[in-house]
């Protein structure tokens, strides 16, 4: 295990969508996951590129999970949270898989406003890595749900410049990114080496001191490079 500030709190931002999707998969039957969900105009929030194309219509819950995880669609993320009973229900599910650290409090997009010292909507690298391993590698989900989640993570469209950029060619990577105020830039990932070795789970979280600070994608990529280099 390689760690730095592993128990320091950071705003988790949109990385929650990987775990929210896992929770929804765990809580629904295949029929429920395929059911249509209305997309109301009032449900749109900033950065909802997929759901905004379906306002007044419907999307299946599976399509909503795809939008949330692969495109980081915020309205879709809220549908997942609402399906769980809101942040409180999400927290209860996290506790059920052994995560006593992550603190859901708000919905999108308010959860992205986490000043240094604010514990709302925060987690730690250790907790997020452990929870991601539980659902994407271990047995917190049944096999079919785990395969569905991994497919979503591997198909992510928002992470090419982050952990993926720091890993060797030929590795298969499934990740979920996040960004927020105070220069917050995060990525949590499962990476399968090309040689068929056991998967590597990474959680790289970063934050700066000023509310309008720029985030740094290369910092995340370089952290991934350092981890792989240290592991040999």
Give the C-alpha Rg: 17 Å
Ranges where pLDDT stays below 50 over 5 or more residues in a row are none
Order of helices and strands: EHHEEHHHEHHHEEEH
What proportion of the residues form beta strands (DSSP E)? 15-25%
CATH fold call: Beta-lactamase
Q: Into which percent range does the helicity of residues fall?
A: 25-40%
CATH first level:
Alpha Beta
Which term fits the overall shape?
A: globular
SS summary, helix count: 9
Question: Quick one: biggest sheet?
Answer: 3 strands, antiparallel
The name of the CATH architecture is 3-Layer(aba) Sandwich
- What is the CA–CA distance across the termini? 12 Å
Q: How many strand elements?
A: 7
CATH superfamily: DD-peptidase/beta-lactamase superfamily
Average pLDDT score? 98
Largest sheet strand order: 5-6-7
Label the structural class. alpha+beta
Descriptive report:
By secondary structure, this protein is an alpha+beta fold. It has a single domain, classed as 3-Layer(aba) Sandwich (Beta-lactamase), CATH 3.40.710.10. Helices cover 39% and strands 15% of the residues. The protein has helices spanning 16-27, 30-33, 61-71, 74-83, 86-96, 125-136, 143-154, 163-166, 217-231, and strands spanning 10-11, 36-38, 58-60, 122-123, 172-180, 184-192, 200-206. The strands form 3 sheets. A 3-stranded antiparallel sheet has the order 5-6-7, with helices on both faces. A two-stranded antiparallel ribbon has the order 1-4. It has a two-stranded antiparallel ribbon with strand order 2-3. Helix 1 crosses helix 4, helix 1 runs antiparallel to helix 7 (143-154) and helix 4 (74-83) crosses helix 5 (86-96). It is globular and about 50 Å long. It holds the Pfam family Beta-lactamase2. It comes from Arenivirga flava. Its EC number is 3.5.2.6.
């Amino acid at each position: 295990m390689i760690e730095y500030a592993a128990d320091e709190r950071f705003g988790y931002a949109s990385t929650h969508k990987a775990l929210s999707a896992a929770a929804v998969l765990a809580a629904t039957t295949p029929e429920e996951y395929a059911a249509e969900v209305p997309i109301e105009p009032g449900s749109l929030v900033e950065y909802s590129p997929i759901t905004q194309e379906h306002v007044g219509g419907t999307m299946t819950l599976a399509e909503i999970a795809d939008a949330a995880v692969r495109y980081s669609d915020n309205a879709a993320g809220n549908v997942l949270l609402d399906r769980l009973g809101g942040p409180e229900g999400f927290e209860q599910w996290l506790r059920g898989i052994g995560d006593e650290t992550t603190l859901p409090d708000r919905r999108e997009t308010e959860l992205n406003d986490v000043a240094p010292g604010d514990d709302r909507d925060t987690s730690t690298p250790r907790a997020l890595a452990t929870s991601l391993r539980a659902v994407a590698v271990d047995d917190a989900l049944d096999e079919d749900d785990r395969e569905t989640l991994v497919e979503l993570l591997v198909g992510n469209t928002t992470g090419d410049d982050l952990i993926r950029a720091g890993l060797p060619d030929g590795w298969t990577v499934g990740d979920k990114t996040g960004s927020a105020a105070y220069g917050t830039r995060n990525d949590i990932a499962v990476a399968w080496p090309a040689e068929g070795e056991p998967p590597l789970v990474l959680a790289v979280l970063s934050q700066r001191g000023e509310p309008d600070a720029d985030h740094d994608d290369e910092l995340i990529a370089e952290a991934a490079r350092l981890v792989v280099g240290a592991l040999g």
